[in-house]
Amino acid sequence: MNDLSLSQRAWEEEYRHVTWGGSRSISAVEDLLAPGSFVLDAGCGNGRYLLPLSKKYHVVGSDISLVALSRARNYLEKSGQHAVYAAASITHLPFSNDSFDAVVCYGVLQHLFASERSLAVEELIRVLRPNGLLFFEVFGTNDMRFGGDEVENNTFRRKGGIIYHYFTEKELELLFRGFDIGEIRSIMTEKIFRGERYTRHHIKGIARSLKSDI
After folding, report:
1. What pTM value is reported for the model?
2. How high is the pLDDT of residue 168?
3. Assigned domain for 214 exists
């Protein structure tokens, strides 16, 4: 069985137990992207970003998990919202070149091996229109969950088979060398678990495709 099918099985099982948890803020997208733009939510999961995105944009949600897509569709329909859905890996997106004005990629690249991350970024560049925007978020190396069964540098396999990679800002700059990174920042938040204090480390950013329209 190949890594893709193993990954797909792991995420199908994960989303059988994940609860909704409510919509997430898309303020970073709203600040830069005009209403009515075409947006891909790459790795949309159960729709926590897809739902608010669908209220302002023509949006497509893609995910490797059929369970996640089914739940996302149900959540949007209950809210009277609509999106297009695609079952696909971010490393092989089923869209034409230059399809989207923006891609939202929150909490996805951290679940890929190094070779897959490179393929994913190539795909994001391909489906974005010239000067298209990429909104991304990943785990950073100072996160409380860093460590475990290491399978690549700073990459760990968790119980159930899901991969977790922890990034540095420099690593992201190299990964996104086909983009003009307008913003990249580490966000540290405190989490108290069983009376102990821990740190969650996320790195968020916004980048613009350097692809020419000529």
Report:
1. 0.94
2. 98
3. no
